[in-house]
């Protein structure tokens, strides 16, 4: 059987609200995306993952869907969407949709109907009586993934509904076969439109096995042991595969919060999905509670990624997405080695085994925005965290620090197309979220395109090399164990062998003996060297892709 496209392809994630505004209202939209398809294709990527464009009150900026069969007017119409699929196809690009079905919006008609106690939709959600003696306490002690109680009281019926995210995101009840049927209808609807697959939002939490109290006291995700990767979850995903995905060529990507190796392995080998995002590597610069910052050590990242590389049959590799802060800010150097570290991270992400994901702006080295006031965040999660910290009387400076660290606005500032007004994102007066003023002048597509040594140019070469060299996109992964900041691994198939060497630190580092074996040709260098000049040291953030033998 031919290798499926998703194994060779690099996937580019578009956050529609912030990609390109075509009509000057300050909000990115589908016609804007269409106008930039040539740019996207020029990167060499073959698949676009589109964050949600469905009808939504936008409490969680589209991850709260009120109609799965409509496009939000901010983004355009269903005709625009169809045109996007067609225009993408002309350029050899496939579209992957975001499937958000753990919850709907509270403005979805299913939920509105479900508020009546005898409605056929009541059982689409988790409606429960409060705890005794008087039902004025939530049915259990669970807390939301965004902090605070996971239940909201409804006066009308004197019952509560479950929401693992904001209270405007009620959880669907996957014990109800009707809900699964609805999901299958949505899948068919978009597959019939020519969509290539789905990135499935928080898909490892959809099945609540029991509603018993959770352990511990955490203000975030208490109760998770009752719904993370339960048997029913595996069963449902396998059913979707049998009923739908097995019937055509497509890709299923799971967003699997805190997935472990055992479940990850099972997701893949049991045909529940084609790949999934692990979260472990994203915790390397966070305290165990995930509240505070922790110093980044490349060694740790290396250990985690090597483990995943060797434990599951296929990986979905990423350093950024719309929920994460910018990778250069976290793992590289925004100032002195901006360019070098941007390229070094790219080389790391794109030469691992698995499918690489590149998030809009990552390819031009976008970095975090300035720190703001927690109240001003446009991210519902950051605001909820601030609220709970306020409730516990934490001082302002601390709230500001914590919220900044997890503020998803960092990844959501407009794509920077040029150095002009609104960074070329919009010709309107205002943009829905402020353009990131930090280093705007050096960080934009126009500037990057004019420079052969830019981060963008490096991405383009790297994506091409990855696609053209079999061992890099589907060869075996062989780690070379090194101490210190140097990352070294081999990719190998029957015909060829490559070595990735990266110094992920600000200090010059000696290349360990074990990592110097028989490199003959230099394929790519983050310092833009043209030939190999011996291998003794790597300069700060120097990265090399070498051919062996
Ligand atoms: C996923 C999305 C995130 C959203 C959450 C709830 O983690 O990536 O943006 O807030 O699910 O849908
Ligand atoms: Ca617009």
Commentary on this structure:
The model has no long low-confidence stretch (mean pLDDT 96). Helices cover 28% and strands 15% of the residues. The protein has 16 helices and 20 strands. The longest helix has 16 residues, at 177-192. The chain is an alpha/beta fold and 549 residues long. The protein starts with a helix and ends with a strand. It binds alpha-D-glucopyranose and calcium ion. Calcium ion is lined by residues 21-23, 25, 27, 29.
What's the short version?
The protein is of the alpha/beta class and 549 residues long. The chain has 16 helices and 20 strands.
Architecture blueprint of SSEs:
Elements: H1 5-8, E1 11-14, H2 30-35, H3 37-42, E2 47-50, E3 54-55, E4 67-71, H4 78-90, E5 94-99, H5 109-114, E6 127-128, E7 151-154, E8 159-162, H6 177-192, E9 197-200, H7 231-243, E10 251-255, H8 261-269, E11 275-277, H9 298-311, E12 316-317, H10 327-331, H11 338-351, E13 355-359, H12 380-391, H13 396-406, H14 445-449, H15 455-468, H16 470-474, E14 476-479, E15 486-492, E16 497-503, E17 509-510, E18 519-525, E19 537-538, E20 543-548
Parallel strand pairs: 1-2, 1-13, 2-5, 5-9, 9-10, 10-11, 12-13
Antiparallel strand pairs: 3-4, 6-8, 7-8, 14-15, 15-16, 16-20, 17-19, 18-20
